[in-house]
Design brief:
By secondary structure, the chain is mainly alpha-helical. It has helices at 7-13, 19-27, 33-43, 50-56, 63-74, 81-98, 106-116, 140-163. It is built from 8 helices and no strands.
Length: 164
């Protein structure tokens, strides 16, 4: 299961993404070139570097131009691939959680994403086939509660690591 997110969603939920995170997401298909441009536009400020203005002026139709601009922005970031992966795990699972009513089996989507992200430990508590930490509070309602808690915990952790 591959989820492609739009730049507006990414900015509204994670305005703290670094350009290294954006490059990671673009390279792995979590964002399209158009989504990257949309993110750049929403993130523009008077303090934005020239490369971001250049990126914001693109249409996103030429993926090579977008990759080149993002690459120049990402070079300035300290690279933390593990942190970038956590950010995209968070955003992917958040997207599905927010839109769970649109999926016939949202917990099935969780299982697919869990496998796609190579079974991250942080996601195990929301996977149906994984043993519950407390078997007395098992069931789908508990899985959704765990999911919500995991997302809030991930958001706090990611924001804290980006604001330091």
């Amino acid at each position: 299961m591959h989820i492609v997110l739009d730049g507006g969603f990414c900015f509204s939920e994670a305005p703290w993404l670094s350009w290294g995170d954006i490059e990671y997401g673009l390279d792995r298909g979590f964002l399209t070139s158009t989504g990257v441009v949309e993110y750049a536009v929403k993130r523009l400020s008077a303090e934005s570097p020239a490369e971001q203005y250049e990126l914001a002026c693109l249409t996103g139709d030429d993926a090579n131009d977008v990759r080149e601009c993002v690459g120049r922005l990402a070079v300035k970031d300290v690279r933390d691939v593990g942190g970038s992966e956590k950010a995209w795990i968070f955003l992917s699972f958040l997207w599905v959680f927010i839109n769970r009513g649109k999926y016939q089996d949202p917990l099935g989507i969780v299982e697919e994403l869990y496998a796609d992200f190579d079974y991250p430990e942080s996601v195990a508590p929301i996977v149906r086939y994984m043993p519950a930490a407390d078997p007395s509070v098992a069931g789908e309602n508990q899985l959704f509660k765990n999911w919500s808690n995991m997302l809030e915990s991930s958001r706090r952790e990611l924001q804290a690591s980006r604001s330091g």
